[in-house]
Amino acid sequence: MEQKFDVIVIGSGPGGYVCAIKCAQLGLKTACIEKWVDDKKNTKLGGTCLNVGCIPSKALLESSHKFYDAQKHFSRHGIMSKGLSLDISAMMQRKNSVVSQLTSGITGLFKANGVTSIAGTARLLADKQVEVTTHDNKTTLLSATNVVLATGSVPIDIPPTPLQDDIIVNSTGALEFNNVPEKVGVIGAGVIGLELGSVWCRLGSKVTVFEALDSFLPMVDQQIAKETLKIFTKQGLDIKLSTKVTGSTVKKKKVHLEYQDSSGKLQKEVFDKLIVAVGRKPFTGNVLDASCGITTDDRGFIAVNDKCETKVANVYAIGDVVRGPMLAHKASEEGIMVAELICNQKPEMNYDLIPSVVYTHPEVAWVGMNEQQAKAKGIDYKVGVFPFAACGRALAADDSEGMIKVIADSNTDRIIGVHCVGPSAAELVQQGVIGMEFVASAEDIALTIFAHPTLSEALHEAALAVNGGAIHTINRKKK
Ligand code: FAD
Ligand code: NAD
Predict the structure, then answer these.
(1) What is the mean predicted confidence (pLDDT) over 96-121?
(2) What are the sequence ranges of the domains in the chain?
(3) Which ligand is nearest to the CA of 220?
(4) Which of 196, 330, 378, 428 has a 20 to 30 Å separation from 115 between CA atoms?
(5) Rounded mean pLDDT, 376-403
């Protein structure tokens, strides 16, 4: 007999697994179907984020930062690191064990919360029936009152640089090099290009990043982006803007890359590895049967409203497969929202306050509106900026590059954006997110007592600076 659930979630990434757990916690009979398997055909939960995304990349960013710090900065503290060496296979093993710990953690959470975990590839049919094909090609039919599509995204390929073995790779391949390549090319100066480019640069590769656009990090506040470019260039990343990659050939395990530089001149360069990081696209491969009534738009996204409802009643879609930033925390929050909706609660998700982070060192993080957006919207705003060079804790930590910036509405003093490049930028901007959720004004933050000495004091000073009251820096002149 066909098995019936209250909710079937398709995909166990941070969107799907969080949604499934929340549904079960709210008392719904829930199943989560996942197709991802390891070499031994064991199901791997956690999606892109845990297996080949957020977690393994952050594990390598931490390891490579420790190596770089030991090599470049320890001596300033009187710690001599002569004879320092690298065991790349130990580094990769540590990364893999962090991944295993977290993915098996989801198996445990599913059990503890009573989510039925189903291995196989799901296909949505009419009337919320779901066909599951197991890895040994057996098919079963399930049905549900509600279905949540959380099938995620995959990397975009471009014709001039087709992937080849472990030489021309996407982000997944770039997490697995088994030695430090002498020369690495990266196509795309976006989040992945900068994070993974930094990993290999810190470990000793000469890294060149090719970016098609003429501006660096256009989605970031341009004062912050300019400072970031300066810092990354000093770290050794060679970032070439306005470049057009035109072709590549692999000869004797090396990539011969052809590109047009910013002056239009054709150039050639040889790399040991090439990382293609030009964005990701939604994934719905084979999951939507024609009978299910759901189609994708011309970019491959499943159309949903702000409650993640598709055009078919009781079928929802969340995470990378729908509009909005492709971020794990956005996927998870949508998962929780949908679980609560299914239970007739009235959840709301504030899409204006989704924080973004580039986990380089220093980190780049932001939330809300940047200066260029405020200007474009004709908002009368004021700005407070505080450099980490004037922050006692940052100096004590020998980590004082960058700045934090608070933007507030001139009429109401309400904070409309927080932007940062600097130590622990992600954690500092998160304080801005909390403040903004509670509709804080710059004065509210200014009147708050911050412990000394902390990096958080930089946020305090930036908020003070909004109204010309910073103590440890010269305040910006009023416009
Ligand atoms: P996914 O995580 O992609 O999960 C979708 C799941 O659905 C997969 O497991 C897939 O196998 C399964 N699936 C698909 N089709 C079917 C089917 N028919 N049947 C059964 N199962 C199916 N985001 C951040 O917020 N912070 C970061 O630091 C960060 N770092 C990243 C680093 C890298 C290198 C990459 C590539 C991404 C990173 N991201 C980061 C983005 C983040 O990984 C995604 O936004 C997030 O994983 C999206 O979650 P999701 O649940 O929508 O989809
Ligand atoms: P991205 O959109 O961040 O950056 C891609 C970059 O490649 C852009 O700057 C784009 O202009 C450039 N580009 C596109 N085509 C090009 C070409 N032909 N030649 C040269 N440059 C080209 O995408 P990504 O870095 O691949 O990351 C994909 C997604 O994964 C992002 O949307 C991001 O949300 C998510 N992600 C997030 C994090 C994080 O939160 N820290 C980390 C990694 C990935």
Answers:
(1) 98
(2) 3-155+281-351, 168-278, 362-466
(3) 2
(4) 330
(5) 98
Q: Would you state the structure tokens that stand for residue 43, as one six-digit string? A: 């199901």
Are both 3-155+281-351 and 168-278 of the same fold?
Answer: yes
- pLDDT of 479 above 60: no
pLDDT of 365 reads 98
Looking at ligand 2, which residue's alpha carbon is closest to its atom 14?
Answer: 278
Which pTM value belongs to this model?
A: 0.97
For ligand 1, what atom is nearest to the CA of residue 287? 18
- Percentage of the chain modeled with pLDDT above 70: 99
pLDDT tier at 2, thresholds 50, 70, 90 = confident
Of the listed 73, 77, 452, 472, which one is catalytic? 452
Q: What is the pLDDT of residue 478?
A: 58
> In 3D, which of 224, 228, 223, 218 has the Cα closest to residue 195?
228
Domain 3-155+281-351 in CATH 3.50.50.60: yes
Taking the domain 168-278, which CATH number applies? 3.50.50.60
Secondary structure (3-state) at 160: coil
- Rg, the chain, Cα only: 24
Instruction: Choose the residue to mutate in 50, 58, 191 for probing ligand 2, maximizing ligand atoms within 8 Å of C-beta.
Output: 191
The C-alpha atoms of residue 52 and residue 283 are separated, in whole angstroms, by: 15
pLDDT digits (tens, 9 = 90+) for 238-280: 999 999 999 999 999 999 999 999 999 999 999 999 999 999 9
Task: Please work out whether the CB of residue 320 comes within 6 Å of at least one atom of ligand 2.
Answer: no
Ligand 1 pocket, residue 122 CB under 6 Å: yes
Tokens for 102? 């977290």
**In 3D, which of 117, 120, 115, 129 has the Cα closest to residue 312?**
129
Contact (Cβ atoms closer than 8 angstroms) between residue 374 and residue 416: yes
472 catalytic? Reply is no
